[in-house]
Amino acid sequence: MSKNKNSVASELDTPTDLPQAAVDKISVAVNTLLADAFALYLKTKNFHWHISGRHFRDYHLLLDEQSDQIFATTDQLAERVRKLGGTTLRSIGQIAKLQTIKDNNEAYVPPREMLRELMNDNKHMAKAMRDAHEIADKGGDVATASILENFIDETERRTWFLFEATRQEGGNEA
Length: 174
Prior knowledge:
5 helices, Ferritin, mainly alpha, about 70% helix, about 0% strand
């Protein structure tokens, strides 16, 4: 039934005018972003649930807002792959295989370290989105590129907020 690992069942083969090679490359790139979005969402929620200290309320609310924003990208990314005729993630196991964002299973992480780790993860995500944008551009997929442009801006905003939240009083970086 399948010609290659990126082939889809004929019942799921959404018509597109993009070349199959472009669909395959874009699908791989976007599925990796999707896996990372789920990993970053769960890590952000983990830190949201386990934040402590004198800035608890501010950090708790910041991380809740950011996790909601990250989760909101998942459906758009997955549906973009399907609109192209590709297949998308089907399981937690597949997410674990594709994710490039590292999990954090520590029993306790100091708040400033949590925010710094999330800042770096968001920076990583923005770079991966730029790389996927380039693949979409080369494949002639302006719709995926457009979606990624908005997500890059949101990711940079999260990075900025996390950076500012970790600065020492007096403006010196932590």
